[in-house]
Write the structure tokens for this entry.
Amino acid sequence: MFPKPTTYANGNNHRMVHFFDQKMHGDFERMEDILADASRHTRAACEEISQLPYEACKPLQRWSGDLDKHLEQNSLLTEDFRHATRSALREMAKLEPELAPGLIDDAMRFLRDALEASYRVCDLLAAEQAIAKHRGNRN
């Protein structure tokens, strides 16, 4: 942020300065929000997949069902969820974009965002455990 001024100009001008106390929040403080974003992205991807035509949706049915199951169980931090997400992304990459212009791209973007958020929260939790273990060894 800007430092508070210690001197002021004496010219014929008028200045108004507002100082706001803005706290910067890192990912660690936003962990719950990041996980909620993963849930929102997964739900949006499942909605996009359900709107695909049958030819495009057929190879994704298994993975879409797994993703729905993980949403219901709120198990977005498991390796099973990440496996289902990666597998769905691989299957979607094989689809012809002409089958459903826009829907496939949107669903893939949502799945990538959900996967990234899941990994981020897992990384933050692992870092928290490592720090706690390190602090425990020092005491």
Notes: The mean pLDDT is 85. The chain has five helices and no strands.
